[in-house]
């Protein structure tokens, strides 16, 4: 069944149409890739779902509930977490405190008398527990990405939205990261909605791929169908 | 004379630090400059005067109540004047500037231009360092100021409310995405900022009586302290406040009382020439 659904979402910035009547579904328990050339509207779509932007028209439905235009903190409490292309840790706070912000504001925070233990648990999940008492600004790129995922997980999401989480990683790190995200999905019963430019990773991880081009829903299908589709090749490579 | 001026500098410096902490908190979290900060400082002085002098309450109860009332007034101001202006810093600047003028004139109308002074906490004087006699009331003000500053540090560094404050002032959008209700946080922090001005007001009012416009130089100095110490830095507020308090009093003692505020700005200019982000400011901030 569809966990997350977008219905004819449109968004304009001034005269520029970033998204035009885009509909999509993300099924529960799957990894869904969102791809498209630069400027296709992928991040705008994420922003509409997460509440950072309000759509001009269209609706966002999550677990059967209309969440269109709710503020980001409410959307978060519904069970939607996202990470950013460029990681944004709270630099002068320790990793433990960073993750703790998610813990304390998650819907089940009342039961978390000991937020430190819960935060540490999520740091262990992503494998940066050694850095619990290090200020986040001292972390390297890979560690920051892991921290951002830990912080997102701490809000107890049903769906994790990843925005180009593999950017800046080398090929070996990419293989590890893809394995890690699949493992997360299986162990935490998550759904993953994933913007990615590294096509190899999406091919390996995703069950379904949605392709956007110039603000329009171009096509969707299995990774094999998508890479074989002439419209997709055309969108990426031109004539 | 040196020792006496230093003591005076410490007392007034602690109060500047307290007032600056309130400004810094509100600027850091909401990016709002509250021009009526000094008038709230005075409001708390008047409240404690009415409660303790006119109504005859115990001075501690009167002070706590005065701070609580200003906190509530701050929340009311945020809800009615600041919240509708989110996204446009200029509007809140103008509105709080108008508020400061309205309050000053309201004080003038209600209390008149005369200085009002809530009762002192303690009488007498102490022989300090075997060098000079210093008023016990001023010593008590210094201690009270230090206690409230320590309370703010614990609140911001050690509690969950403080961690959420720090997270939000670093990256508001990211904090919202992690479930922080920033609208409510704004309201509470604005109230808290006002309460810190109020704390400074009730502590200093028994030493320096309140008049309708006595808040102006305090607020002005608080803004200078925040810039001097570095935006968003708690230590910056404390060190900056003490530096300005000391410079003002030593300058007045050895050079001239007429140039009291000029010294502050000379120090500010010198510091900003060397460290544009302020003493404790981070470059990216």
Keywords:
heterodimer, A: 239 residues, alpha/beta, Rossmann fold, 2 domains, four-stranded antiparallel sheet, B: 285 residues, mainly alpha, ABC transporter involved in vitamin B12 uptake, BtuC, 11 helices
Task: Provide the number of structural domains of chain B.
Answer: 1
Largest sheet of chain B: 2 strands, antiparallel
The count of DSSP E runs of length 2 or more, i.e. the number of strands of chain A, is: 10
The main sheet of chain B orders its strands as: 1-2
What is the H level of CATH, i.e. the homologous superfamily of the largest domain in chain A?
A: P-loop containing nucleotide triphosphate hydrolases
Return the CATH topology of chain B: ABC transporter involved in vitamin B12 uptake, BtuC
Biggest protein-protein contact in the assembly: A-B, 29 and 19 residues
Quaternary status: heterodimer
Return the CATH architecture of chain B: Orthogonal Bundle
CATH level-two architecture of the largest domain in chain A:
3-Layer(aba) Sandwich
- In DSSP terms (H or I, runs of 4 or more residues), the helix count of chain A works out at 9
């Amino acid at each position: 069944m569809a966990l997350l659904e977008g219905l004819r979402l449109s968004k304009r910035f001034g005269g520029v149409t970033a998204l035009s009547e885009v509909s999509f579904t993300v099924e529960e328990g799957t990894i869904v890739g969102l791809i498209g050339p630069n400027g296709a509207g992928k991040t705008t779509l994420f922003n509409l779902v997460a509440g950072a932007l309000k759509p001009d028209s269209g609706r966002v439905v999550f677990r059967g509930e209309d969440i269109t235009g709710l503020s980001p903190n409410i959307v978060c409490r519904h069970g939607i977490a996202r990470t950013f292309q460029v990681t944004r840790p709270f630099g002068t706070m320790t990793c433990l405190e960073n993750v703790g912000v998610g813990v304390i504001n998650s819907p089940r925070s009342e039961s978390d008398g000991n937020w430190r233990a819960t935060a540490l648990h999520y740091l262990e999940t992503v494998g940066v527990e050694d850095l619990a008492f290090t200020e986040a600004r001292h972390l390297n790129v890979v560690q920051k990405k892991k921290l951002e995922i830990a912080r997102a997980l701490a809000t107890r999401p049903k769906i994790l939205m990843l925005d180009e989480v593999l950017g800046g990683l080398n090929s070996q790190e990419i293989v590890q990261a893809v394995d890690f995200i699949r493992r997360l999905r299986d162990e935490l019963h998550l759904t993953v909605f994933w913007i990615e430019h590294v096509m190899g990773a999406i091919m390996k991880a995703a069950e379904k791929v949605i392709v956007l081009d110039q603000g329009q829903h171009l096509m969707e299908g299995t990774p094999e169908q998508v890479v074989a589709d002439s419209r997709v090749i055309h969108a990426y490579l031109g004539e | 004379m040196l020792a006496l001026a230093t003591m005076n500098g410490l007392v007034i410096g602690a109060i500047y630090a307290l007032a600056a902490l309130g400004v810094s908190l509100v600027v850091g979290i909401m990016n709002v400059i509250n021009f009526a900060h000094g008038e709230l400082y005075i409001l708390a002085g008047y409240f404690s005067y009415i409660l303790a002098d006119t109504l005859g309450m115990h001075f501690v109860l009167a002070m706590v109540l005065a701070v609580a009332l200003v906190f509530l007034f701050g929340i009311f101001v945020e809800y009615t004047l600041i919240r509708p202006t989110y996204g446009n810093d200029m509007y809140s600047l103008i509105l709080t500037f108008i508020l400061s003028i309205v309050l000053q004139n309201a004080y003038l109308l209600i209390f008149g231009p005369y200085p009002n002074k809530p009762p002192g906490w303690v009488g007498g004087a102490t022989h300090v360092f075997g060098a000079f006699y210093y008023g016990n009331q001023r010593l008590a003000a210094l201690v009270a100021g230090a206690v409230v500053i320590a309370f703010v540090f614990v609140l911001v560094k050690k509690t969950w409310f403080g961690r959420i404050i720090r997270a939000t002032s670093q990256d508001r959008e990211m904090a919202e995405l992690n479930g922080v209700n920033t609208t409510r946080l704004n309201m509470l922090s604005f109230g808290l900022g006002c309460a810190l001005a109020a704390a400074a007001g009730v502590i200093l009012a028994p030493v320096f009586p309140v008049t309708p416009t006595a808040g102006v130089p305090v607020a002005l100095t608080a803004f200078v302290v925040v810039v001097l110490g570095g935006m968003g830095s708690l230590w910056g507020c404390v060190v900056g406040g003490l530096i300005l308090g000391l410079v003002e009093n030593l300058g007045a003692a050895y050079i001239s009382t007429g140039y009291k505020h000029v010294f502050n700005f000379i120090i500010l200019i010198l510091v900003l020439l060397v460290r544009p982000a302020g003493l404790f400011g981070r470059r990216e901030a």
